[in-house]
Amino acid sequence: MTLPVPAPALAYVGVDDLVDDETRDLQAAVREFVDRRIRPHVAAWYEEGHLPARDLARELGDLGVLGMHLDGYGCAGTSATAYGLACFELEAGDSGLRSLVSVQGSLAMYAIWRFGSEEQKQQWLPRMAAGEAIGCFGLTEADFGSDPSGMRTRARRDGGDWVLTGTKMWITNGSIADVAVVWARTDEGIRGFLVPAGAPGLTAPEITRKQSLRASVTSELVLDDVRLPADAMLPGAAGLSGPLSCLNEARFGIVFGALGAAHDCLETTVAYARSRQLFDRPLAAYQATQLKLADMGLELGKGMLLALHLGARKDAGTLDHRQISLGKLNSVREAIAIARECRAILGAAGITLDYPVIRHAANLESVLTYEGTSEVHQLIIGQVLTGHAAFR
């Protein structure tokens, strides 16, 4: 018997009708790159705890996705929605790949683009957009994740120089970065500094034994009296609003990216259920299976509609940064639920790297935590609704 051709979950919702041809073409180009360059290798990279980040950065630079939503300095200047859909396709490959692009473009490059001097922009942004130089973003510390205002890293003046001392933790790209954007406490408040690789006193040991984001470079940054010239400071950022604005850029990409991982899980599971025979019938023909698939398709579609709405507002310049919390909370919470349900439908096959589902599920445990935990985003939404801050 010939089975009817199933409708992909997002085609059924009709989200393609909400973006223009140019954006769809760009999304298709990123999808082709992921299909060709990432999918055949990512399970092995994940198992080995390795990512060929430098090679991939150059290829991603050629593709035009590094800092793609920024203008000038070799950046593509695309819409926010196009950037979001690129993140969707990248994370459908692996969260580690999207993290590489997010940290490069939305954290390190964005910090320089928005807060840097013209000399700093000229020195770093064209090379970073091309993937010739890699950046990282040093804000989080071991004891200060959700509360970065408590950071212990300090920068003190010594003559005409700055001297930085402290430790940053969970830094994507840290041990391979050519430049680190490091945030430190000074007598004038929190400021950002550009710390080049090889600076005396800077070390970046890689964090190993991870069970999530294994195909990603994660490091500490240890700053032991790192001496920098006065012009290493980002002149346009003063206070915690600087790094937090960068985090908002990265969170926006996660709104779309997490849904990419969920979509890959759901499409994989639908295909598996249609081919898997159970008591002489396809697994997909059972009501219990269809009820689960229908619920997952519904949540995925709703998540994409919210993401595209937020993208449209960002492109129109009307997006309130607190609205990003709606998207980040919803996308990651639903994505991890979808990944877990898909794993269950696949049964024993779902725990192997022969299928991408367990890899996405494990990765999403990290995505659930970084760029603001679910609880932090719930409290941001709660503050909007009630007018009361309940963070303490």
Please explain how this structure is put together.
One of its GO terms (molecular function) is flavin adenine dinucleotide binding. With 392 residues, the protein is an alpha+beta fold. The chain folds into 3 domains: 121 residues, Acyl-CoA dehydrogenase/oxidase, N-terminal domain (Butyryl-Coa Dehydrogenase, subunit A, domain 1); 98 residues, Butyryl-CoA Dehydrogenase, subunit A, domain 2 (Beta Barrel); 144 residues, Butyryl-CoA Dehydrogenase, subunit A, domain 3, CATH 1.20.140.10. 52% of the residues lie in helices and 15% in strands. It is built from 12 helices and 11 strands.
Report a brief summary of the structure.
The protein is α+β, with helices and mostly antiparallel strands. It is built from twelve helices and eleven strands. About 50% of the residues lie in helices and about 15% in strands.
List the quaternary state of the chains. single chain
How much helix, percentage-wise, in residues? 40-55%
**CATH fold-level label of the largest domain:** Butyryl-CoA Dehydrogenase, subunit A, domain 3
Please count the beta strands (DSSP E, at least 2 residues each).
11
Q: Strand sequence of the main sheet, in spatial order?
A: 4-5-9-8
Reading the helices and strands in chain order gives HHHHEEHHHEEEEEEEHEEHHHH
Secondary structure category:
alpha+beta
Instruction: Label the overall shape.
Output: globular
Cα radius of gyration in angstroms: 21 Å
Count of the domains: 3
List unreliable stretches of 5+ residues.
none
CATH class of the largest domain: Mainly Alpha
